[in-house]
Protein: BTB domain-containing protein
Amino acid sequence: MEPPEKRARSNPVDTATSWAVQTFENEGDVEVVVEGTTLRVHSAILGLASPVFATLLRNGMQEGLRGKIELPGKSKEEFELFMSYLRPGSTKRMTEATVDIMLPWFDHYEVSGWKAECQGILQSMPVTTARLFQAHRYNLQEQYHRCLKDIEPKEFVSQFEEFAKMPKLLEDFLPIVKEQAKYKELESFFGLLEGFIGNGIELSSVLPILALCLTHAELLEDELCTELSQWCKGTMDVMQVMQAMLTRLLAQKGKALDLQQTSKRQVCDFVVHLCETSRDHKISRSTILRYAEQHFAYRP
Structure:
């Protein structure tokens, strides 16, 4: 006869630790109200970890006198996670799954040690514009400079409207990327952007112009950039400037197209000449025509 299945036993150490933590928290001397729920915590833990909570709990402050702190707009689940990091003896570790949740808490309540821990985790994760904006917002200097150097051009172009909302970030970003070969095609655009920032022009007011310039960055010339800077310094009608720009850009594209068509006609004339004299050459007429059709859209 087989012995009865053993009942799973809980770890007595874990059970004791859980009981001790629960008892410790139930004896808290401050009530924290979050999402309509009242949680008891120890003021010493909050005050030692956070200068912000220390100020709230200081003698004479309303929260300290009442022994109650209200956190409107905050999540109860996130606050409990926040406290699990602050609790004495906690073995809680920051992870990629929790870093984005906890960073705003540690930043807002100035918990510097855990904020530094968040930065360490973020520095092991891939660079994106979202990570750059996050580092800028929460003043994570090491992560910020890492992201500035590694942002790809396609991400800059796709997120330019967000960049334009942060002139200080652009001031830090431009000197770095101007030296990088991968941004070579945007060199003239960066010069225009630096001129706007240097002249104190509010980028949001010229965003349609900048977006148009970025789209046609390969056509920007020093003369056009100078004209744009002059237009934008004075009393500016955005639609007038855009109309003038479009006229210039279309004219440039037209010149490029005319040049391309001229070159194509010259090549086609040469192909015709070769075809007419192909009897005296080893290259067959069909080979010449096929090459002309593939590379120059030539149709005999």
Q: What stands out?
A: DSSP finds 17 helices and three strands in the chain. Residues 126-219 form one domain. The two ends are 95 Å apart (CA to CA). Residues 35 and 73 are 7 Å apart (CA to CA).
